[in-house]
Amino acid sequence: MYREDCDIAEPAAKDTVLGSGVSAWATDPERAARLWKPSAGLTGVDAFSTMT
Fold first, then answer.
1. 23, 29 contact by CB (below 8 A)
2. pTM of this prediction?
3. Which of 19, 32, 39, 41 has the smallest set of CB atoms within 10 Å of its CB?
4. pLDDT tens track for 27-36
């Protein structure tokens, strides 16, 4: 969930460059999973390591 102007941000229009809303790539679960692994390795913190 992303916040904007003290409220939950709505998805941005597909061709929006700057403005309101959150881009689809920012909420993509595959991208999040790919980023999580190296981030956890670099920080030594993996809050989801015990989850199955």
1. no
2. 0.49
3. 19
4. 888 988 888 8
